[in-house]
Amino acid sequence: MKRLSFFIGLLLLALNTIAIPKTSTYSGTIKGFKTSWGFKTGTLIVLNAVTGIDESHLINIDSAGTFSVSFPLNYDKQCWISFPFFHQNVYFKHGGKVIQNIDLTDVSKVISVYKGDGALINTDLQRVTPILVGHKWEKIQSDIYQMEPKAYKAYFLAMQTGKIKAIDSVNKINPLSKKAYSLAINDIKNSIAVDLINYNYNIESAYRYNSKASFADRTPILKTVALKEDYYDFLRNMKYNDRLNLASGNYKIFLSGLLSLELIYDKTGRYDFTAQINVLEQRDTPTKEEKAWLASMKAGNGRSVPTEVFNKVRPQVLKEITNSDISLELDLIQIQEVCQKIQDLQTPLPDSTLTRIKKELKNPSLFSEVLDLNNKVKQTIINNKTQTGYVKNETPKVAEDSVFENILKKYKGKTIFIDFWATWCGPCLEGIKLMAPLKEELKNEDIVFLYITNNTSPISTYNTMAPGIKGEHYRITADEYSVISTKFGIQGIPHYMIADKSGKIVNEKFNWNSNTELVKTKLLSLSKNN
């Protein structure tokens, strides 16, 4: 009997720890909303710290200012809500309903009232939002310009102390709920830790800002500074191996910092690319990609680390510098890398590999999300076999510098929205997902959605993904892509252009910032006026 009770207890524990997806709902009203403002959508982003893959959901606003969106959520957590007038983390309960009524009667002062599940937590967090989002980056970039690591670290730790004191002051006058207080403190610590981890990136950014150097050219200007081990002692004050961290909006970003910590590269011993650098430097006409690689290698002292070696050394380095049990964090890092591979390649893992991965985890209950993603990709492959509305085109057999012009000729008489993307590019895929409803709305107009990628999109993955993206598709060579990117100054993806009915590019860099109404207005204007 005791043995039976023991096993029943284990079963109940397992059921309580497994993340079972439930549908959560975000709804509300926007008082004073006007369709003339030029937008009728917002975005809800689930920052998934388990898979590492963000999940975006479109929020449609009707003419009366009412909105509602339902989405799967595996555990209680903060999700990022973005409207043109509101950008903030909102706390959702697993399977719960959040109602946010927003008053825009006075556009200079946005007032929100929360109801439903987690209303008290969100109301309390709203009270301390000015503290949480109080990073004034223009001032920070001026302050940290040319700072050495020690001064930079002291600067941000002082900022953390000031923010926590401000939260405590609010809490003392009018106490926050325990959950809201915990989320607020975690948000501050995770955010500051990310800033400290990103010393080289932020110093590079500050240099560009203060010297008015271009941010479009991503080639590093400054040489990477090797940070000493004691620089990272702030990581010993973080909270680890706690499932409650999953609720924090910034936890996923913090994990990303740990995943590729520069100290791990330094501890591993970087591979020396000096010989390859010397060869390329002696070439008379290196390609644009070779020039970028050269600059990157020089900035990093010409060294890199093989992935398998890096992954082997990482757990040991992280355990040493955190001086903590980080079994949850190591599991999450492993799961994120597995899920990213499944997502990028759109190739499901075999059962034998899935079984091995689950056995390696110290927190096997997290494995359900790997399985969910694997099954989702399987279903996508099945669904895409019957998809319509997409066309995979052969690249015109012309000189490399005429390929783009000849592609556009095919669609003369139609306005063209051009999307440069890749199968592995997360922001590209999010943009494609957001654009899907607009393509359906404009399907009877003289408008073409043109998708161009190159050989960095693996052919098998491309063949799987393309059928799920309605539009005209081209997969061009590296040299053909290089000619186009050089001519139009394409520094990264996603990159968007718009061509009129004559095939002339009227917007070489069209920034729509997730506002599909802006895209719709521009395309219809060109379509009607040409």
Labels describing this entry:
47% helix; 17% strand; alpha/beta; globular; six-stranded mixed sheet; 530 residues
Structure description:
With 530 residues, the protein is of the alpha/beta class. The protein has helices at residues 2-17, 119-132, 137-144, 149-173, 178-197, 199-211, 251-259, 262-268, 274-281, 288-299, 307-322, 327-345, 351-360, 367-384, 403-409, 426-441, 459-465, 478-488, 516-529; strands at 22-31, 41-46, 55-60, 66-73, 77-83, 86-92, 97-103, 111-116, 271-272, 303-304, 390-392, 415-420, 447-453, 471-475, 495-499, 505-507. Helix content is 47%, strand content 17%.
**Which segments are poorly predicted (pLDDT under 50) over 5 or more consecutive residues?**
6-18
What about the largest sheet? 6 strands, mixed
Overall 3D form = globular
| Portion in beta strands | 15-25%
Tally of individual helices: 19
Class computed from helices, strands and strand pairing: alpha/beta
Secondary structure: helix percent: 40-55%
Q: Kindly provide the radius of gyration, computed on alpha-carbon positions and rounded to a whole number of angstroms.
A: 25 Å
Mean pLDDT: 88
**Termini Cα gap:** 82 Å
Number of strands: 16
Order of adjacent strands in the largest pleated sheet:
11-14-13-12-15-16
